[in-house]
Amino acid sequence: MPPTVESQPTNVRLYPLFIVVVELKLREDLRAGESLAEQSRKIQMSLAGTG
Fold it and tell me: Which domain of life is it from (predicted)?
């Protein structure tokens, strides 16, 4: 069917954009994870200091 052949180029064009979006999302998640890890470390250190 011709429509499938026509839809392929758009997918090829959108694919790099999708990769960029996923990479940005993963970086945001990594930053959030790092900040959460730092917060938990601070809480653990403060609890260890008071205990």
Answer: Eukaryota
Nearest to 38 by CA among 50, 49, 26, 46: 46
Q: Considering the chain, what percentage of its residues have pLDDT values greater than 70?
A: 75
Q: What angle do CA 11, 24, 9 make, to 5 degrees?
A: 10
Euclidean distance between CA atoms 14 and 8, whole angstroms: 10
Q: What pTM did the predictor assign?
A: 0.46
Residue written as tokens 């970086």? 27
